[in-house]
């Protein structure tokens, strides 16, 4: 850590950073400043002198070991309180004496907790050295590192432990059990070879920067749904259970006005919990002997009623708006174990292709169950009419005779007479449909080409990007279609038609924001709702239309659950479970930074700065960009948490190149039949302009990272420029042809990326633009990361690029993540995967290869 950084850190933390006199060539620092609790008097348990089954009696060391509080949750600062049984303890400052020992009163069997903090500017190896007279345990980040279980009155017991610490903030906790005399200890840290003590700082500040545990750990709010009157919220939560790879998921019912938790479904075996459309009731399912039963619980009357039992192969259910019936789905796979298999089409290689599901109706009052659909194609429920008498359902099938190779039928069924009408047949680009409040219209969500050219607003481009979600109002009687989002640039994610005010409420991707809007069907105007956030993850409208609930976050603020009052537009936070978990985290600033191309197109972007940013310094730069065709949202955390990269001392530049949805149909249509040329050139252009406009960027230390299509982009970039010092491609596509043929979604994704273009008629795309066929042009060191079980972008995409670059004598590394698919989801492996990224960038952008060498030492194989 250089002197400028140390100075900046000292100012920001504003704490007593105390450096020991330099010894051993500036290698060692003694921890002189501590926070300490009041003394806690401990007592031996009853029958402590009685031998247990192993012949042991209760020892004083057991007194130290077995009196515990959660060290991981403890991040105190001076004057904070600590609850211990019925006592309230206060954290106070304690300083070592002139001999670097912390001295405590000579009272026997008193427990003390002491805390200090360490910040290291890079991954490093340190030696933790302890001298102690009393019994003591020392923890780093909640893990015990040193201990001493004897009271030594004449000579301090010495011990040490080698530590490998990742860059960032670390908590040092001491548990000490006092003896009747000489209760002193000393703790110091010594930098090992390749480092010196300027690398790390000691302080009493609990301020932290973003790290992987802040991203993954803690309780997360996942989704919300409202009771019919909007007075209660059903909130879903999850949390990791480190150090295991397990997690916990549960739901709670909260009264919105008071914030009171009425019910928690934690630890239950209930599934499919949802509100009824009338009354303050919920329904859920239970499984018995492999079959499913459905129950209704009235939480105001505290009564439970079973409405259906013993349903085999149950999948899901939906309530009719009048609450008198449910439509449920049953399904099973028709795949069998096989030695030889004749494929019934391209999709038959997908493991779920032979799964079929069908619809049933349950009359709640009588308990009568009736089958509604049958056949060879799965039927999927789209919606139930407001009066509960009709349903919309779809079927879909592959059809290789014409682009885009999937055909959808939409049907309306009278569930009393079983009469079926076809709404549309063999629609080339299908849509999701729901009834209007009066049942006379449908609200259809689909791509720009859902109803042919009527919804396309793509300028001179021949093919639309059908991932760019649009909305249509379809009149059932006349079959007239109104493309209501034709001139609305945000891409539609979800929509619901309110029965109360007749407005359509929408969640949409608006550039790199995800916002809520309302659409007035009379004035045909869109209005943005104030969500007090940057990215909305999901939303729910109460059945009576009085309120919206949603989960959302900011660019540097965690996900929370909100309720929006439709009448007065007021927003209320109803759940913020990560508030304490992130209370001490300090973020760097963020700002927007855009540039304009020669053709007049504005490419938007944003910048993340380190928390201690100093414009007089030079910083390494990491460049990030979208994968697929969705922009990188301004979301908190995520799989590539840019706040965390910034916390590690990088400036991060994120840009949204052409082809992304949420910028209007013409912009997104640029994705079709381009496969990265426009995208890559905009990234190169933007990166050069960004470096030129920001003198604090070290132009020789610029890295880039992307995943999936973004991983392809990473590889393609290196064939077109040498401005990067390091490149990371996760699950990247190296050969467009092999991806088109082998990935589970290869050819179907290519319908949108290379519509009507194939390896046999567009060699200029499939070969000439594939990084593999241009591998000899690559000079940038590259890391290829890939889940070994990736079904979207098969592992071979990285294997063949690794093989090519090795044969060409290029600087390339290849790391597989065992047992992971396209996304790295396993808790432990996700940490290792992130550390691999951090270590690789540290090696090439900071000239710090030690972390990488420790993770992946070269072996003489």
UniProtKB/TrEMBL annotation:
Q: Which residues form the signal peptide?
A: 1-20
Instruction: Indicate whether Repeat appears among the record's keywords.
Output: no
Record key words, sorted: Hydrolase, Protease, Serine protease, Signal
What Pfam families does the database record attribute to this sequence?
PD40, Peptidase_S9
InterPro entries listed in its UniProt record: 6-blade_b-propeller_TolB-like, AB_hydrolase_fold, Peptidase_S9_cat, WD40
Please give the SUPFAM superfamilies that the UniProt record associates with this protein.
alpha/beta-Hydrolases, DPP6 N-terminal domain-like
The residue ranges of the Peptidase S9 prolyl oligopeptidase catalytic domain are 643-847
Where are the membrane-spanning stretches?
none
Q: What is this protein called?
A: S9 family peptidase
Tell me which species this is from. Answer: Marinifilum caeruleilacunae
């Amino acid at each position: 850590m250089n002197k400028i950084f140390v100075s900046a850190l000292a100012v920001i933390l504003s704490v007593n950073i105390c450096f020991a006199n330099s010894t051993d060539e500036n290698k060692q620092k003694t921890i002189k400043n501590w926070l300490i609790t009041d003394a806690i008097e401990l007592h031996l348990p009853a029958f402590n002198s009685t031998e247990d089954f192993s012949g042991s009696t209760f020892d004083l060391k057991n007194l130290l070991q077995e009196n515990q509080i959660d060290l991981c949750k403890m991040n105190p600062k001076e004057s904070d309180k600590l609850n211990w049984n019925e006592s309230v303890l206060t954290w106070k400052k304690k300083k070592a004496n002139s001999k670097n020992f912390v001295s405590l009163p000579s009272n026997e069997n008193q427990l003390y907790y002491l805390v200090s903090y360490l910040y290291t500017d890079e991954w490093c190896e340190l030696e933790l050295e302890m001298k102690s007279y009393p019994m003591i345990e020392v923890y780093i980040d909640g893990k015990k590192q040193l201990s001493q279980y004897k009271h030594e009155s004449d000579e301090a017991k010495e011990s040490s432990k080698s530590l490998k610490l990742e860059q960032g903030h670390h908590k040092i906790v001491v548990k000490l059990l006092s003896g009747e005399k000489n209760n002193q200890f000393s703790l110091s840290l010594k930098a090992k070879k390749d480092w010196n003590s300027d690398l790390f700082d000691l302080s009493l500040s609990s301020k932290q920067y973003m790290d992987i545990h802040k991203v993954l750990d803690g309780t997360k709010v996942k989704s919300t749904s409202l009771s019919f009157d909007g007075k209660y919220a059903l909130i879903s939560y999850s949390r990791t259970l480190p150090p295991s790879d397990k997690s916990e998921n549960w739901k709670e019912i909260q009264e919105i006005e008071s914030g009171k938790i009425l019910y928690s479904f934690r630890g239950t075996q209930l599934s499919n919990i949802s509100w009824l459309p009338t009354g303050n009731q919920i329904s859920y399912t239970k499984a018995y002997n492999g079959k499913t039963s459905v129950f209704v619980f009235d939480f105001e009357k505290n009564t439970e009623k079973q409405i259906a039992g013993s349903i085999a192969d149950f999948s899901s259910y939906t309530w009719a708006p009048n609450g008198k019936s449910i439509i449920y789905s049953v399904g099973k796979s028709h795949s069998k174990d096989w030695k030889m298999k004749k494929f019934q089409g391209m999709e038959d290689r997908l493991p779920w292709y032979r799964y079929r599901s069908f619809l049933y109706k349950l009359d709640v009052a009588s308990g009568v169950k009736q089958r509604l659909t049958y056949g060879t194609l799965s039927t999927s429920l789209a919606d139930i009419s407001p009066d509960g008498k009709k349903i919309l359902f779809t079927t879909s099938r592959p059809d290789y005779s014409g682009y885009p190779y999937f055909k959808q039928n939409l049907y309306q069924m009278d569930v009393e007479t079983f009469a079926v009408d076809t709404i549309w047949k063999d629609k080339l680009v299908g849509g999701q449909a729901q009834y209007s409040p009066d049942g006379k219209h449908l609200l259809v969500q689909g791509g720009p080409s859902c109803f042919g050219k009527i919804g396309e607003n793509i300028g001179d481009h021949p093919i639309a990007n059908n991932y760019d979600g649009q909305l249509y109002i379809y009149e059932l009687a006349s079959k007239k279609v109104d493309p209501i989002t034709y001139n609305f640039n945000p891409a539609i994610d979800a929509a619901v038609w309110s029965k109360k005010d007749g407005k359509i409420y929408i969640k949409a991707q608006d550039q790199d924001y995800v916002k809520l809007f309302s659409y007035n069907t009379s004035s045909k105007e869109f209005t943005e709702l104030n969500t007090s956030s940057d990215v909305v993850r999901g939303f729910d409208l109460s059945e009576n239309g009085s309120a919206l609930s949603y989960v959302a976050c900011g660019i540097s603020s965690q996900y929370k659950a909100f309720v929006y009052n439709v009448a007065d537009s007021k927003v209320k936070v109803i759940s913020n479970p990560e508030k304490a978990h992130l209370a001490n985290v300090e973020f760097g600033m963020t700002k927007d930074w855009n540039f304009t191309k020669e053709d007049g197109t504005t490419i938007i972007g944003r910048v993340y700065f380190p928390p201690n940013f100093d414009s007089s310094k030079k910083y390494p730069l990491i460049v990030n960009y979208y994968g697929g065709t969705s922009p990188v949202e301004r979301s908190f955390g995520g799989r590539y948490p840019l706040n965390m990269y910034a916390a590690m001392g990088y400036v991060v530049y994120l840009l949204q190149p052409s082809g992304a949805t949420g910028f209007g149909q013409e912009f997104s249509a640029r994705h079709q039949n381009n496969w990265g040329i426009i995208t890559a050139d905009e990234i190169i252009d933007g990166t050069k302009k960004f470096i030129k406009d920001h003198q604090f960027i070290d132009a020789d230390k610029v890295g880039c990272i992307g995943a999936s299509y973004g991983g392809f982009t990473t590889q393609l970039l290196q064939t077109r420029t040498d401005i990067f010092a390091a490149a990371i491609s996760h699950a990247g596509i190296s050969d467009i042809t092999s991806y088109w043929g082998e990935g589970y979604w290869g050819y179907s994704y290519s319908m949108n990326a290379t519509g009507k273009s194939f390896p046999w008629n567009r060699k200029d795309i499939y070969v000439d633009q594939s990084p593999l066929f241009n591998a000899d042009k690559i000079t940038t060191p590259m890391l290829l990361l890939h889940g070994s079980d990736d079904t979207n972008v098969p592992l071979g995409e990285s294997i063949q690029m690794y093989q090519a670059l090795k044969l060409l004598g290029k600087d390339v590394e290849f790391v597989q993540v065992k047992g992971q698919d396209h996304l790295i989801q396993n808790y432990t492996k996700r940490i290792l995967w992130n550390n691999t990224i951090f270590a690789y960038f540290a090696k090439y952008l900071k000239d710090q290869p030690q972390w990488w060498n420790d993770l992946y030492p070269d072996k003489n194989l």
